[in-house]
């Protein structure tokens, strides 16, 4: 119990700490916008998205969404506002109707969920891999050129019309239906956020001021780190064993890829030092990443009186049999500690972003409404994460400001948003 108690204390996130995290985030955001490399952690990448969807986009567009876990190919039929409900038609075959007329090329929005330094809306070089991706020889290369070469090789006549980060896609998808959307956030395998910035607030932007006066910025906040982050020995050990030690620290305490492994490391220590599972240490407990976020969610939401789900998962994943109710309760407590810390820090990140944009306060005489579009498996499928994130954001904002902020799920936003941006950057416009 002393291991659990110590872990719990180290993971605590009182509001004071969350405010410090948010403030540090805001400071880094300013630095990142100033000049390239001014912030060691927040890249604040210029996306070249100067026009977000209006809701009037029409036509047939494609999207290829390369995430951390899933790759999705989409065909999106945009019908303009009147048909907004039938925005997306996912189909796997390509019947005649979808063939483009002679002389017209298919156009693709390419969602690429890794840090890319864009040089235009259709080009950008990969800065580094994150999550578990590590394909050799691609860092420093233009990802659109690589994709185009591959498409040519297999005889696929398609033009990439927009290269977008998944957070930008999420923002664009939500903006199509609601013009109050200003932030797009992903909590999936990894985590990241994009938001709409005033062009004049980006000193490092030397191009023409966009007509809209706005530019979407990809924060790459997964790489954020601060002395205010409540990190434990388990986080440090986990970080050391990843493909990118010392990097993406915010992501490693928040996102779906890592949460289960933090719990596993705490359990392993308890087994080794306190015989938590009896006098032998179950060998499977030593396998990195064997406990997934969805297992953790299932255990965390087990409402049976004997915590049957927890018992079954411990048996199926770790081959630990006949666990007592007491043991199961402690496992649930560990899941709680880890997911609550993640959700509260996630809320601090959003709060920092709202502070940066001045949307964290109600302005006298203004009826401002700000919508934050969220997507990703962790947000979608881990109710405890979602509800804790929402309630913590309210705590940080206070009652009055909280009424002006709306959190919205941007379903399949990353892919559909990319198709929308392909539409607004079509060569046939
Ligand atoms: P990606 O981030 O790869 O684009 P998703 O947004 O679908 O893909 O997120 C997938 C991630 O979401 C998984 O890696 C996992 O961490 C998390 N996840 C998926 N299902 C669940 C679940 N039921 N409970 C908690 N987390 C989940």
From TrEMBL:
<dbReference type="GO" id="GO:0006096">
    <property type="term" value="P:glycolytic process"/>
</dbReference>
<dbReference type="GO" id="GO:0005829">
    <property type="term" value="C:cytosol"/>
</dbReference>
<comment type="similarity">
    <text>Belongs to the hexokinase family.</text>
</comment>
<dbReference type="GO" id="GO:0001678">
    <property type="term" value="P:intracellular glucose homeostasis"/>
</dbReference>
<protein>
    <recommendedName>
        <fullName>Phosphotransferase</fullName>
        <ecNumber>2.7.1.-</ecNumber>
    </recommendedName>
</protein>
<feature type="domain" description="Hexokinase C-terminal">
    <location>
        <begin position="183"/>
        <end position="423"/>
    </location>
</feature>
<dbReference type="InterPro" id="IPR022673">
    <property type="entry name" value="Hexokinase_C"/>
</dbReference>
<dbReference type="InterPro" id="IPR043129">
    <property type="entry name" value="ATPase_NBD"/>
</dbReference>
<keyword id="KW-0324">Glycolysis</keyword>
<dbReference type="InterPro" id="IPR001312">
    <property type="entry name" value="Hexokinase"/>
</dbReference>
<comment type="pathway">
    <text>Carbohydrate metabolism; hexose metabolism.</text>
</comment>
<feature type="domain" description="Hexokinase N-terminal">
    <location>
        <begin position="84"/>
        <end position="174"/>
    </location>
</feature>
<dbReference type="Pfam" id="PF03727">
    <property type="entry name" value="Hexokinase_2"/>
</dbReference>
<keyword id="KW-0808">Transferase</keyword>
<dbReference type="Pfam" id="PF00349">
    <property type="entry name" value="Hexokinase_1"/>
</dbReference>
<keyword id="KW-0418">Kinase</keyword>
<keyword id="KW-0067">ATP-binding</keyword>
<keyword id="KW-0547">Nucleotide-binding</keyword>
<dbReference type="GO" id="GO:0008865">
    <property type="term" value="F:fructokinase activity"/>
</dbReference>
<comment type="pathway">
    <text>Carbohydrate degradation; glycolysis; D-glyceraldehyde 3-phosphate and glycerone phosphate from D-glucose: step 1/4.</text>
</comment>
<dbReference type="GO" id="GO:0005739">
    <property type="term" value="C:mitochondrion"/>
</dbReference>
<dbReference type="GO" id="GO:0005536">
    <property type="term" value="F:D-glucose binding"/>
</dbReference>
<dbReference type="GO" id="GO:0004340">
    <property type="term" value="F:glucokinase activity"/>
</dbReference>
<dbReference type="InterPro" id="IPR022672">
    <property type="entry name" value="Hexokinase_N"/>
</dbReference>
<dbReference type="GO" id="GO:0005524">
    <property type="term" value="F:ATP binding"/>
</dbReference>
<dbReference type="GO" id="GO:0006006">
    <property type="term" value="P:glucose metabolic process"/>
</dbReference>
